[in-house]
Write a structure and sequence with these properties.
Blueprint: H1 6-14, E1 41-45, H2 49-61, E2 66-70, E3 75-77, H3 82-86, E4 96-98, H4 100-104, E5 109-111, E6 115-119, E7 124-127, E8 132-134, E9 137-140, E10 144-146, H5 170-181, E11 187-191, H6 202-217, E12 222-226, H7 235-245, E13 250-253, E14 261-265, E15 270-273, E16 277-279, E17 282-285, E18 289-291, H8 293-297, E19 307-308, E20 322-324, E21 329-330, H9 338-356, E22 365-375, E23 378-389, E24 392-395, E25 401-402, H10 409-431
Parallel strand pairs: 1-2, 1-9, 2-5, 9-20, 11-12, 11-17, 12-13, 19-21
Antiparallel strand pairs: 3-4, 6-7, 7-8, 10-18, 14-15, 15-16, 22-23, 23-24, 23-25
Helix pairs in contact: 1-9, 2-9, 6-7
The chain binds flavin-adenine dinucleotide.
Flavin-adenine dinucleotide (FAD) is lined by residues 45-51, 70-73, 76, 79-80, 82-83, 114-115, 141-143, 166, 198-199, 202, 206, 292, 294, 326-328, 336-339, 341, 370.
């Protein structure tokens, strides 16, 4: 019988793009799960970047573990590349993934349902359908929720008029519809979120993709980004790209310079920022964020609204036996990205398999690369390597960085190709 070692696993996990590298070698059955007789049951909440990766890699590491994945949607639509849908470069179909491979190829029991409560004492989850599931280990990866009431005038209902489109799906289509209906010469206002939020470069990639759409179809239009922050991810690279591809079209207003929004009026389509009131034709309001609702209601969050975890295993510091990965977790210096969520999920899966066997989880390390498209042939990136220190998960100095500032067009074109390659490989690695 072949055993997969932690070292082997880390090699696979590091090569996140190496889809399909690992076959189904019969791994050691975790019959002696350090918890008595029988098959260990792991329940995973959420079939996104964190949850789907964790479910798949738990089965790869130990096919003796019974893994049940609970996800309400029958298909998963990725936020990555949803900005490209708004830019007219992609269809919704091309960013929609099924759970068939997880079910049929990897033996994950996928249930399309919603977890409504978690009883950490009895080790049971309750589902919307009325069913109850028992678990030995629980992984929670519910993504984010919104603080709808953080700014006066905004609400879940207001998101039907001023869409956030920060969870891909109907909201993406709603924003797209509004952009298509907007007149040439209209004003598009984006209200950017405060830190911490899902996908630090995401708002600025979105502004770029909408600028691309305007350039092609409504060239007299303007984009105003109202931002409570005073800087943003890959700022120099984005601004250079905007200058190059969309001169004069995008205006970014920093918090200290009047970018903080106090209120919105959805009826009059007015955004009230500290220095001026702006009448907009289309508003993309991205609210402040918090851990997914189920993490909040099950006592996994701290006073800041996010989930503190052990940086090696991702076990909750609030509720032992429950693991939190992805955007909901506080993972030190790791950003709230799909790449990081997937990286965390692999480490968490390895830690769970180790502890089920009564072994001590090994040290871990992580990688993250965030590519952004500024134009169809203009890509930029930021990469980082992270490891555990006595300060938690910290970035390894000098191991990452951003794309060079004065790179030639051929370099930007190459990075645009890598952006597409990254998307193909990570989605195949997770849902393939
Ligand atoms: C516009 C945009 C662009 C982005 N681009 C990139 C990019 O280029 N690269 C990158 O790495 N990241 C990108 N991201 C970030 C990325 O989408 C997130 O970081 C990632 O999805 C986080 O994974 P997750 O598993 O934590 O949450 P998600 O992927 O959101 O998955 C959470 C899942 O949990 C399910 N769920 C929630 N509650 C329950 C419940 N009670 N019961 C059962 N299921 C539940 C939800 O239905 C959902 O499917 C982008 C984000 C946005 C908004």
């Amino acid at each position: 019988m072949n055993q997969i070692t932690r070292r082997d696993f880390l090699k696979i996990a590091g090569a996140a793009s190496a889809a399909g590298v690992l076959g189904h070698a019969p791994l050691a059955h975790a019959a002696k799960h350090g918890m008595g007789q029988g098959t260990a049951r792991v329940v995973v909440v959420g079939g996104g970047f964190g949850g789907a990766t964790c479910a798949k890699y738990l089965r790869r590491l130990d096919p003796g573990v019974a893994v049940t994945l609970i996800e309400p949607s029958s298909k998963y639509i990725t936020c990555p590349f949803s900005n490209m849908v708004l830019g007219g470069l992609r269809t919704m179909d091309s960013i929609t993934h099924s759970f068939d491979a997880l079910k049929k190829k990897h033996g994950v029991n996928v249930m399309h349902d919603t977890v409504t409560s978690i009883d950490t004492g009895a080790k049971k989850v309750k589902l919307k359908s009325g069913k109850t599931l028992a678990y030995d280990r629980l992984v929670v990866s519910p993504g984010i929720d919104f603080k709808y009431d953080a700014i006066q005038g905004y609400s879940a209902k207001a998101a039907e008029v001023m869409p956030h489109a920060w969870k891909a799906g109907p909201q993406t289509l709603l924003l797209q519809k509004k952009l298509k209906a907007m007149k040439n010469g209209g004003t598009f206002v984006m209200v950017a979120p405060p830190n911490p939020f899902r996908c630090p470069p995401g708002p600025y990639e979105r502004a770029s993709m909408i600028a691309h759409y305007f350039k092609e179809h409504k060239p007299k239009s303007k984009i105003i980004i109202l931002d409570p922050k005073d800087k943003f991810s890959k700022q120099g690279l984005f601004e250079a790209g905007w200058q190059r591809l969309y001169p004069g079209m995008i205006k970014w207003v920093a918090g200290p310079k009047g970018g903080t929004v106090k209120a919105v009026d959805v009826k009059k389509m007015i955004v009230d920022a500290t220095l001026e009131k702006i009448k907009a034709d289309v508003v993309n309001f991205i609210p402040a964020q918090t851990a997914g609702k189920i993490a909040q209601t099950s006592g996994l969050t701290d006073d800041n609204g996010w989930c503190p975890v052990d940086p090696v295993t991702f076990e909750s510091k609030m509720r032992p036996g429950v693991y939190v990965i992805g955007d909901s977790s506080i993972a030190g210096a790791l950003p709230k990205s799909g790449f990081a969520a997937s990286s965390e999920a692999k480490m968490c899966a390895a830690a769970i398999v180790a502890t089920l066997k009564g072994e001590v989880p090994a040290e871990n390390s992580f990688v993250n690369t965030c590519y952004s498209l500024v134009g169809p042939n203009y890509g930029i990136s930021v990469a980082g390597v992270y490891r555990n220190t006595d300060k938690g998960i910290t970035e390894v100095e000098g191991a990452g960085g951003v794309s060079p500032k004065d790179a030639p067009d051929s370099f930007r074109e190459q990075e645009a190709k890598y952006t597409v390659g990254w998307y193909q490989s990570i989605t195949a690695d997770i849902w393939g």
